[in-house]
Design brief:
- The chain has about 425 residues and is of the alpha+beta class.
- It is about 25% helix and about 35% strand.
- A hairpin with a 5-residue loop joins β25 and β26.
- α3 packs parallel to α4.
- The radius of gyration is 24 Å and the shape is elongated.
């Protein structure tokens, strides 16, 4: 069917190689191979010899011949530069939304894997996570050629708490650092870091600069659709001594709509909860991150007196700490009541939550070393026993810590809303 030709393929599509040899993102497939391109994903298909392939189209799947070089020559040059590197050589890719960052990382990972290199991939694009579930920064590696990053083997992940780094830039930076550090500790020859497409405004600039300063990559690769697209970031990093290389965006890309991006996250959340079950975890047996619930103690007599005077004798569930007071009520208290409590008790924070705030909140469970065990969906809180009911597939015996997110996801994997950090 194809003879030394280039094709742009998009899923959902199943490709069977009947004869010859083809290549997708640097991975070679010979006779008898089957290649699956998921919905909303695309790849360059190159014929390395006279080949015959069979195509099975699913929803939205298509293939189009291209006279253009679908894999830019400077991608190949970058691979040639990296193939002799080792000892945790770290490459950080920076590019706008829909410029081909993930395709570049996939191409490099496949080519290096074919050279017997141990490759670590840090997926720091929390909104479009391929390695690890949404709301995390994942560390993966290759044990076989891949057509998309979601096929990489998950090694570890860091929970950011939402599908965007906005509002939690510090977690995004820390998570990227921890995953790079973990990759180096595992002895990977090369670590490839895929970043978000947030490259504009003051916070997008801040995120990229701080990630550079924190992970200290050996090479920063800018991928651009046009000249000087990211000149503002280059000028920020040049003065910091960054080793910068520029590569081209591929001539053909599949641009994802916001709805398609949400659909991909939906399928990933579904995958995360498909084998989940309800478990009970006591707040008194685990550590707590990113939330106030479970971090306080019973209120003092003075605090009870103040609450009784302002709220009445029927007091809600209460936790008190030096800096905060948490109240679990049936409905939100008026802002005037909150302000009075803050003033009279001298607290920096009055956290007023309801059972509805808790329901379907996304959480992450980790072990005592802070390593990822799985996501969970918070269902209920029994205030009398201080126990949480969580829907998760994590190994309960290893759970040592719970991290509260600021997004809600129901048991079917559907996003129900986002909130400010430290909601509960």
């Amino acid at each position: 069917m194809v003879k030394r030709s280039g094709f742009f393929v998009a899923g959902e599509l199943l490709i069977k190689v009947i004869r010859g040899e083809v290549e997708l993102f640097g991975a070679k497939y010979s006779s008898g191979s089957e290649i699956y391109i998921p919905k909303h994903r695309a790849a360059p298909l190159l014929s390395l010899s006279e080949s015959i392939i069979d195509l099975n189209f699913g929803e939205d799947g298509f293939i189009a011949e291209s006279a253009l070089d679908l894999v830019p020559s400077d991608w190949v040059s970058l691979y040639e530069l990296l193939k002799n590197k080792s000892n945790g050589y770290t490459v950080m890719a920076i590019g706008n939304v829909d410029t081909g960052k993930t395709g570049l990382i996939t191409f490099l990972a496949n080519k290096l894997f074919s050279d017997k290199k141990q490759v670590g991939i840090v997926d720091a694009d929390t909104g479009q996570s391929d390695i690890g579930p949404p709301a995390t920064i994942g560390l993966g590696t290759l044990d076989k050629p891949i057509t998309h990053l979601s096929e990489a083997k998950l090694i570890d992940a860091f929970f950011v708490g939402n599908v965007t780094p906005a509002g939690v830039i510090d977690r995004s930076i820390t998570g990227t650092y921890r995953m790079v550090k973990r990759g180096k500790s595992l002895g990977y020859d090369i670590i490839l870091v895929d970043t978000t497409g947030w490259v504009s405004d003051r916070w997008g600039r801040e995120l990229k600069i701080m990630k550079y300063l924190t992970i200290e990559p050996d090479l920063v690769v800018f991928i651009e659709k046009y000249k000087d697209e990211l000149v503002h970031l280059k000028r920020s990093l040049i003065g910091l001594g960054a080793n910068i290389l520029e590569v081209s965006s591929p001539p053909r890309l599949r641009i994802r709509s916001r709805e398609e991006r949400r659909s991909i996250r939906f399928s990933l959340f579904q995958k995360e909860v498909e084998d989940a079950r309800e478990v009970v975890i006591s707040l008194d047996s685990v550590g707590i991150n990113y939330g106030f619930l479970g971090t306080g103690v019973n209120p003092s007599e003075e605090t009870i007196d103040v609450l009784t005077n302002i709220i009445g004798p029927d007091l809600p569930y209460i936790e008190e700490s030096e800096d905060a007071l948490l109240l679990l009520t049936d409905s939100k208290l008026p802002s005037s009541v909150i302000n009075s409590l803050k003033l009279m008790l001298g607290k920096r924070e009055i956290i007023n939550i309801t059972k509805e705030d808790i329901r379907h909140l996304l959480v992450c469970l980790t072990d005592k070393e802070g390593r990822y065990l799985g996501l969970g969906i918070l269902l209920e809180f029994d205030q009398s026993s201080r126990k949480l009911l969580i829907f998760t597939n994590a190994n309960l015996e290893r759970v040592s810590n719970i991290q509260f997110g600021h997004i809600k996801v129901n048991l079917n994997g559907v996003e129900e809303g986002k909130f400010n950090p430290w909601l509960i």
